[in-house]
Recover the amino acids of this structure.
């Protein structure tokens, strides 16, 4: 704890070669955004483990640092005495790009990217993003908990809901607009909160802000954004509506400061995440991390730290696992923003939420990233609404659903079942990662086009006409698997074929 | 808008080289069936977009033009002043067949086509057609809405219906004939309306007319045929029955003219399409269009027009999305033909149709080309009939079903459940595209052979004996998906195998 | 009709080269088992079509002829004047084995056949047989009706039945014996009737007779055996029990003769097939036939005969499709053998069978070879028994089930549900085709071994202890298919993987 | 029986070359752990067949012998006169490693094994073990009965159970500890009994003892361990709890001795296996055995012995198939250890067990290794508990479940449904086989990590809070298979694709 870095005169930038000497466990500097920092001590308590820091000891770590850390991280967490000042970047040796063959292949794939107009639906963006994103970024966005059963069920559940469309209804003019927590929007979806936007695009979440503006939909600002909260708010225009997603800090003073600041900056809704007392294990993400440092794994010797926890867990240690129903009155006391609970997963808790006086819930399983085998939001919605209607409570709160929405038909299904609107997360991240703002723009436009058509085809000209008689949900709550395959029997079956071509001459 | 083409003396044919000069955005001629047209202005409002026209600027566009446009299109939509007169085709330079490798491969596949006798069922024609049809034609015929879930469900639903056959019934003589809207037919199916027949075969829909004649079944004439309505009617022989499928025009005068003309020409039924206020997005079709013009995509620059909408949407802009139940009395007033609503999809609308006084409905989802996740016609039928029987209304209208019929057992299932007959579309298109009239003939004959046998095996000698006790539909209305696959678990399972061969010596 | 063959002196064998001259459509001889026959006229009415005869015109057709035709065919169907007498076989030119590459490969596969001891279950024999049988023989045995859904469902249905085994029961001694129509057998299965045994093994059905003898189980003799009925009866030993399967001839006198003869020869049961008024279309079989004559297909010119109907339909034209319940009293009057109806498929017909006074039924769909989407016998059994028990009729007849039995657990399931025994067909054919009698022997022994063990494990020491509480059939009657696959969604999912190996050095 | 081996002077070790002479059927010695044995007579009654012994005639058989035979086998089963004394191992010719190519490949795979830290869940160990274990060992561990349907259903059943998690519960501190038969443990699972541990690791079951100690969980000692019972007990430390799994010997005196010895050595529970009156047929194991001696198969001539029964059946001939409920009072009389029945599979038998006075049951199907189509333990649990609760009997016994547990969520599901704890077998064997004790350690730690997190996410801080309202089991008891695949229909479907990359330049 008493290692003293040599101080450089303030008036003079640090020399890269000098920095490069501090490249080991007992003397470790890194360069970030052109400034040097002494992290010799800090690295021991780095939430992401010290290995990842040592990898950059004496070097410029900006590119890796950026997406994971909001801009004010160093000021918050590293004492000022360790801020060593600016570095003359001309003197910093650039990594002799000992080119990663994976990265070279990725660059090749980027060159052959389909043009934006070839994307016809939200799945298309994911297909492109998978090919062009950095492996670790892809792993962070695309991973889910455990076996990723819930993550996949989220969309799959929509495939169990079928339509009972009406015909011969005048559907010349279609009005997709609706009102969410008092804000008028053009189409009943919102951009839900997702972390670490800069992993996919160097500009980060502000791109989503601009996309949401263009299509007049609401953006929910994530606590774990790569951009700072203020950057994202600054990016909004006019009366654009933003909400705040909140991970509650163990230190309630910090939480209070965040909430009050958000209200002051004009946020129109506070969504408290309740399904993440601990951020989930996402093995795909962990595995991706591992191979990222795979080359020097054998050198780590007796190191017992589990370096392979992925990005999410490192950045979430502040979240309070003791958050409980008892905290709700306090939240109601510190803000006038409508409060909603994000991550409710059973009817008993929806009722309790109403009794607790909040204005809404999001039926969500956190995109399948927390508890595997949690049911899809849409299934929970189908369980919740009949109970509320029986009590006459269906209008006492607004109910949102997120997870797995990929088609306008998914949105329509949720609204038929009683949701006010749906949240969409990953698809916009993928669109942003692959094509930037034009990608987000097109993704939203495709949803509008799909929804206008499908409203016509289901026989409704306004969203308030959507109702439960328009859907057939009999298969929704059945979690069937089939009996394990008859391996031998299937293996010996000689399958039917269609006519064969003549042999080539 | 005031660009004036140079006029050639009427007495003299245009020279190809002269036409070829008008090959750009501001001066654009095309040749169709030996005549030149100035489409400089028209191209801006071309429903299919101007790019596709520019591709043929100064050239002979006949081959691409033909299947999409009924013969009277130019007279209807291009003012006479733009009709430039005949071209001396000897002077037109033929496209230096810079042979498309896809097309060359297709020609190879055509050479190796199985002979007709190798087709043993309706699926076989589709298998052959997929290999020998032009890619864009295949895409237009084979595509469905969104994820093509409904399109596939249509046939799949029949696989949920099982038989409870009777034995020891005298089935020596089988009579498949029945009566549909007063017309006696040999077997209870009809050729339903499908658009753009010339995409599959240069002669178009008249081939289906001839096939229907040979097997004494009814043909439903499509509004969007490649042949003109009169060509198709002219192709019928003797007392052959035809029906008319109608897309209702925003201009009811046009619609009235079409209906009155059809009645005058002897059509015996008017099927008003009610499931298509807007023609569906079919992404396979859109994607196929895109790659068709892929080579010069980068030149299109700032062009914002979405060229990739596929054939269907371009030709359907006239359809009236405001069509509603209020229009039905008017239709009843303008014709004596029986009126049926094609595309009804829930029991409430069947009841309303009966109350509205029409003579029948077709339970249909438009071959899965409109609203994805619409239920199959056969499933809706199983929902509808018990309700009608409860009211004693089962004989007040004729109920037809289309979508997914591929086997005689499918027909039998529909009749057991209460349908008068079924409509079959794509399979005959595929038979026609692969083998022309002989293909259609064989396809129909195969259905007859299958049906005669299966009537015997189910224990019925006449179609009126078919009844609900002969089928087990318990699984029909269950839209199950299985839980997302246990990827890790399945991946590590070491499957059982059968005995291995000895190693080769 | 007045073509006169040159007669050879009776005392002198015909010369092969002389026979070879009669090799065309208007003059056509063939050699079978060393004798020549003039089939010039007969070929026009040959049930299998004349093409297959012309292929052998002037040549020795024995090998192809044998499996399809019972030994007395020529005497029955070809008038004596066309029997030309013996041929000096030394003078017959053997086909310059213009070796079929498929056949050469098959011979190779035969050399590498697994030894018999490598077969551990009935599926294994099928796996081997598929590799070593002639293609056409395999196609005949393995094919089913239409899409072969019922054929596969037959075994698949057993996979929907699960056990509720008892523990702590003394199962030291297991007794598998039972009584079927008064005959004591060692294990409750019988060899059911299957046609054309010589396709799989040159000795034909007598191999099954010997196998059945060794294991003291009953053989049901098929009407369409390759061996004659008497050959099969002659092959039995001691008090071995045989039953007769009967296709009823349009000419009841023939049927009567067959029944009386069977009774005289000691058959202990008459199983009248009631599910085959017409033998099914089996497309795999038809397709196999087609390619068999593929090489000269183009020469057939205007020939309109559909040559590709497969073996079954050719040999079955005598079957009476008018057979009905009215015929049952007559059958009861002509024999004292117990009469059973084979192919009953719904509870209503089981009740009618009891009322008609027969001694039993076989719940069967003909191995999935007749009506596709007929339900499995085991499913029908589960429907039938509760109805019979409600009426107290469960002991008025014996109920058998066939189709899809491959494991002793399948037998146990059927007995738990109320069957007296099960019929097994194809598995023994495959065992016989691959390994002859030792194969049949081992197949039966494996079933005994499996059954003894599984009786222990379910907690029953005698077959009469098997009862419905030992099985869970809740899933049995559900004919579910899943929603069509989410093609795009599944295609973009990045599946979880297990740890990867290090790269090779 | 009167063949007399030449005796060597006791004072002098046997010479390897001398031993090597006794290498045939009529004179057969083998070397095991440095001593020679005359097995000429014994081999005829060797439970595993004599072939496997003859393979090692005159040679050192230790490596093959060890995992299958507990250390005291030779003393127990081979009379002393056949123990020939020590061999001078320097004189024994080592097998000129005519290296098995499979083994060489396996050695290669071992070199490329992932490091332990790359295993993130229990499936990962299985994936690695499959690649690095000897083929026969893998086959023995991984195989199940018949079609392995039950074996796979065991885990698959957990995938039909979904969570209904609570939110906003204080889950800061998670306590996973519970009490099993009076012993306090850190987490509610135990290491269940599995046979032949040395097949996977030369040290055998004591590795599991050490792993269990480290994580304070209970180990159930198997009757068929590779280590002797005392070796396993000796390996425990402090107050570590062990239970005994018991196969009941036909000779009850032996059984009594075993039970009394176990009690004396401190075992805290006696688990009598009741689902294995005969050890199951496991075809994967049998098949693996076969090919193991495949090279000299053709030499075996008329040998009729079925050599291919796999390891399990050979070693289990002593198990008493007559064991029944009548034996329970006797067991209660000979020990004070709690007695539990392992392998109960239906509610009727649970009730009977309570009435018989035992302290618990394990709902188990023996890892799917006995009766195929036995239901999963977790499904039986869901059937059992409501019946017990109705009677108020739910606390009269402890109920355990084993089979298919791979995730902490599986453990939580079982506890929600009423189990005291779950048994886990194969996963620890695989971890041990791949990585030894560190593997077992990490596997257990992973379960703890998973469970702590998932307790938080389901909203419970202690295991006693787990209850049935937290799970949705509606799909659990449905044994659905889907209708056999629509082979032709699926084969001709042209699947949707996502945007294609541009061609490479």
């Amino acid at each position: 704890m008493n290692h003293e870095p040599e101080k450089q005169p303030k008036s003079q930038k640090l020399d890269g070669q000098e920095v490069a000497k501090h490249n080991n466990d007992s003397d470790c500097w890194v360069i970030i955004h052109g400034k040097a920092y002494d992290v010799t001590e800090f690295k021991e308590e780095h939430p992401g483990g010290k290995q990842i820091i040592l990898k950059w000891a004496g070097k410029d770590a900006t590119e890796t640092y950026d997406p994971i850390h909001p801009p004010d991280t160093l000021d918050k967490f590293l004492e000022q005495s360790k801020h060593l000042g600016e570095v003359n970047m001309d003197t910093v040796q650039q990594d002799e790009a000992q080119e990663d063959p994976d990265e070279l292949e990725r660059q090749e794939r980027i060159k052959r990217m389909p043009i934006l107009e070839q994307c016809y639906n939200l799945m298309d963006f994911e297909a492109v993003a998978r090919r062009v994103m950095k492996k670790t970024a892809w792993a962070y966005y695309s991973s889910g908990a455990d076996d990723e059963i819930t993550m996949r069920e989220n969309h799959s559940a929509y495939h169990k809901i079928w339509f009972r469309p009406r015909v011969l209804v005048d559907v010349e003019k279609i009005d997709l607009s609706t009102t969410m927590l008092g804000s008028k929007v053009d189409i009943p979806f919102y951009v839900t909160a997702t972390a670490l936007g800069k992993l996919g695009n160097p500009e980060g979440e502000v791109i989503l802000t601009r996309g949401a503006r263009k299509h007049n939909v609401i953006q929910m600002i994530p606590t774990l954004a790569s951009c700072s909260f203020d950057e994202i708010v600054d990016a909004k225009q006019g009366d654009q509506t933003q909400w705040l997603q909140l991970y509650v800090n163990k230190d309630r003073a910090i939480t209070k400061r965040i909430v009050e600041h958000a209200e002051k900056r004009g946020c129109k809704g506070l969504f408290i995440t309740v399904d993440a007392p601990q951020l989930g294990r996402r093995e795909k993400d962990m595995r991706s991390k591992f191979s990222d440092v795979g080359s020097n794994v054998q050198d780590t010797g007796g190191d017992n730290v589990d370096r392979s926890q992925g990005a999410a867990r490192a950045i979430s240690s502040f979240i309070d696992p003791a958050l409980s129903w008892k905290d709700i009155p306090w939240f109601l006391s510190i803000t006038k923003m409508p409060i909603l609970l994000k991550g409710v997963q059973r009817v008993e808790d929806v009722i309790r939420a109403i009794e607790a006086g909040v204005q809404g819930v999001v039926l969500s399983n956190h995109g399948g990233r927390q508890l595997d085998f949690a049911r899809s939001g849409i299934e929970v919605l189908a369980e919740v609404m009949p109970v509320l209607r029986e009590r006459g409570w269906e209008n006492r709160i607004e109910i949102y659903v997120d997870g797995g929405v990929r088609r306008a038909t998914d949105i329509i299904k949720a609204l038929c079942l009683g949701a006010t609107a749906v949240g969409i997360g990953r698809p916009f991240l993928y669109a942003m990662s692959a094509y930037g703002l034009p990608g987000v723009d097109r993704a939203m436009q495709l949803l509008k086009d799909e929804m206008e058509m499908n409203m016509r085809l289901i026989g409704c000209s306004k969203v308030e006409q959507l109702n439960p008689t328009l859907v057939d949900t009999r298969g929704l709550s059945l979690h069937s698997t089939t009996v394990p395959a008859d391996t031998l029997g299937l293996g010996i079956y000689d399958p039917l074929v269609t006519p064969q071509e003549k042999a080539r001459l």
Remarks:
- The CA atoms of residues 320 and 366 of chain B lie 17 Å apart.
- Chain B touches chain D at residues 121, 123-124, 126-127, 130, 138, 142, 147-148, 152, 155-156, 159-160, 283-284, 287, 291, 406, 475, 480, 483, 486, 488-489, 491-494, 496-497, 499-500 (CB under 8 Å).
- Confidence is low (pLDDT under 50) at residues 1-5, 292-308 of chain B.
- DSSP finds 19 helices and 17 strands in chain B.
